[in-house]
Design goal:
Layout: E1 3-7, E2 10-13, E3 18-25, E4 33-39, E5 46-51, E6 58-60, E7 68-73, E8 78-83, E9 92-99, E10 115-116, E11 120-125
Parallel strand pairs: 2-11
Antiparallel strand pairs: 1-3, 3-8, 4-5, 4-9, 5-6, 7-8, 9-10, 9-11
């Protein structure tokens, strides 16, 4: 079993930046796709970004493309989400997740991920 712990959330003004981290423990996630999702109040959880096990392939939601960057450090069993040019509509709880299928396919749907962190709140003020 794996534990995922997100950190780095907070309150930031529009146009600002935050860097989220997701540290895994209990099992290596180096061989698996990792993803970031978010959920705003009253809305369904939505895909934000994902990265393949090698880091060679990434994919982003259209709403964050060009502003967010996902990366990973397999030596640290950690994945990151650099968020720039933040907008009020980015306000949500952000979750990281791991897809334990051994595949190069980068999953983008909630149901394809096996384990989730508790989430970290990101609030962007206008």
């Amino acid at each position: 079993q794996v534990q995922l712990v997100e950190s780095g959330g907070g309150l930031v003004q529009a146009g600002g930046s935050l860097r989220l981290s997701c540290a895994a423990s209990g099992r290596t996630v180096s061989y698996y796709t990792m993803g970031w999702f978010r959920q705003a109040p009253g809305k369904e959880r939505e895909f934000v970004a994902a990265i393949s096990r090698t880091g060679g392939s990434t994919t982003y939601a259209d709403s964050v493309k060009g502003r967010f960057t996902i990366s990973r450090d397999n030596a640290k069993n950690t994945v990151y989400l650099q968020m720039n040019s933040l907008k009020p509509e980015d306000t949500a709880v952000y979750y990281c997740a791991v897809d334990f299928r051994y595949t190069l396919v980068v999953a983008t749907s909630v149901g394809e991920y096996d384990y989730w962190g508790q989430g970290t709140q990101v609030t962007v003020s206008s």
